[in-house]
Design a protein that fits this description.
Blueprint: H1 4-14, H2 22-42, H3 46-56, E1 64-65, E2 72-73, H4 75-87, E3 94-95, H5 103-117, H6 121-140, H7 145-148, H8 153-169, H9 174-184, H10 199-219, H11 235-240, E4 263-264, H12 275-284, E5 293-300, H13 305-308, H14 312-316, H15 321-325, H16 328-338, H17 343-348, H18 354-361, E6 363-367, E7 379-385, E8 390-395, H19 408-419, H20 425-436, H21 445-450
Parallel strand pairs: 5-6
Antiparallel strand pairs: 1-2, 3-4, 5-7, 7-8
Length: about 450
């Protein structure tokens, strides 16, 4: 029998853009545009400048382009920069059931490898779509166990996804891509011990970098294990102490059922676990007399308390933006007070607004016995008033998820809001138009030139 890595290699190498189901093709284009916008916005932040300078110190090259700066770099280095930028604001997509940020590593590897190979937009999109599907399947097979053990699924599974995209774009054989996936098993890494650092932002970039390196080694004849996924010392046994089998196996119904259909876009720039709470708080906002609030109860999936509700002091009085992004009490209070949860609220305005902090201190996170996590990320907000009334709203899934998808207009609007933090509005509009017709382009040169902050408006 073929191993799982051999099946994934066949799937990636055989996939053609014209054979991608229309609904999945629409998701792929929209999510590609989404991360381009996030990467552009990120290039203006300190971590964006730092990752670019750090990568430049490793060596120069001209194969691929770093988003925003336009700096030419070796393909693996450009992928490291772009993957970091794409996840830098924690605004990129999530596969809900897999708890996996699929687009950042897939985009970073596909863009760099396609540019280096001179591939067409159609081929680049096919590679990107294959990477989306493979990453979602690998992360989903763990059923939330990666997070439970302190691992970041995007860092782990994004490495294999990136290799699949790079292998397809660089003309790897089935045996070479199988070896590359085997090598990725020892390069896939990422723990969630962040401690106020920028580490999580790096994970998709490093995954994309590692995937491209693995393909380069494999194409030069360096052998990797064929049994990286199901082996006794393989990827799953090493990380979650079990190897998913039968219908839980990551290759189950590969090519027949598309797991990428479960991808969700983020309308709010904070942890996806919090989005349903934001929807609930915004729905309740007009009914709430703030001065009459006695307490706010947020029913949260028990397995997520350590991620977005603890330690409590840091959650109700975040000292750093990243702490705020991962705090149910703070974000619910922000939504109630400002009526919006956007980049400006986290990055352009102070975190210590007295009214937000007051309501955050009144907010507690309780256990949610009705949660179906990780199938969905539900959120329930109950506002207890001093007169005994309780205003309550439960959202079983948030806006932007497969049950409540964003349309092209929503996606383009979000892209524009992000992109104009780095480039002029007219230039951003041209980027959006270019991505929506990416399958018509003979190369990615037009796109990478437009995604440069000093490119200017050449209309």
């Amino acid at each position: 029998m073929r191993t799982q890595s051999e099946q994934f290699a066949d799937f990636a190498l055989d996939l053609r853009w014209e054979s991608v189901p229309p609904a999945i093709a629409e998701i792929a284009k929209g999510h590609f545009l989404d991360v381009v916008g996030i990467a552009l916005a990120s290039c203006k932040f300190d971590y964006g400048r730092a990752v670019l300078e750090g990568v430049r110190s490793l060596g120069e090259g001209s194969a691929a382009t770093a988003i925003g700066s336009g700096r030419k770099l070796p393909a693996a280095s450009a992928a490291l920069v772009n993957g970091t930028l794409a996840h830098g604001l924690d605004f990129d997509d999530t596969h809900i059931a897999a708890i996996y940020h699929a687009s950042a590593p897939a985009f970073a590897a596909s863009l760099a490898a396609a540019e280096a190979a001179g591939a067409s937009g159609r081929v680049a999109l096919a590679a990107y779509t294959a990477a989306l599907e493979i990453g979602c399947r690998l992360a989903g097979a763990a059923d939330g166990a990666f997070h439970d053990r302190g691992f970041h699924p995007t860092a782990l599974c994004g490495t294999f996804a990136a290799a699949a995209a790079a292998g397809k774009l660089q003309g790897a054989s089935q045996g070479e891509l199988t070896s590359a996936l085997g090598l990725c098993g020892s390069q896939a890494a990422g723990i969630l011990e962040l401690e106020g650092s920028w580490l999580k932002r790096l994970h998709p970039g490093w995954a994309a970098h590692a995937g491209i390196v693995a393909v380069g080694l494999a194409r030069s004849g360096f052998l990797g294990p064929r049994t990286v996924f199901e082996g006794a010392h393989g990827f799953y046994r090493a990380h979650i102490e079990r190897s998913p089998v039968d219908e839980r196996a990551p290759t189950h119904l590969l090519g027949k059922v598309w797991h990428a259909a479960g991808l969700a876009l983020k309308p709010y720039p904070c942890c996806h676990f919090i989005h349903a709470f934001v929807d609930a708080a915004l729905w309740l906002r007009e009914q709430v007399p703030f001065a009459a609030i006695e307490r706010i109860d947020c029913a949260l999936s028990e397995r997520l308390h350590h991620m977005v509700a603890e330690p409590r002091e840091r959650c109700i009085r975040p000292q750093k933006t990243y702490d705020a992004l991962f705090s149910v009490p703070y974000v619910v209070a922000l939504a109630l007070v400002k009526g919006r949860v956007d980049l400006a609220a986290f990055y352009d305005e102070p975190l210590d607004d007295p009214e937000i902090l007051r309501l955050a201190a009144l907010t507690i996170c309780s256990r949610d016995p009705a949660s179906d996590y990780p199938a969905h990320f539900p959120g329930e907000v109950s506002i207890h008033l001093k007169d005994g009334r309780v205003l309550q709203r439960r959202e079983p899934f948030s806006r932007g998820t497969p049950e409540r998808r964003l349309d092209r207009e929503d996606i383009t609007r979000k892209f524009m809001q992000n992109a104009i933090r780095a480039i002029p509005e007219a230039q951003a509009a041209r980027v959006a138009n270019t991505v929506w017709r990416l399958d018509e382009l003979g190369s990615l040169q037009e796109l990478t030139q437009l995604c440069t902050a000093n490119h200017g408006d050449r209309t």
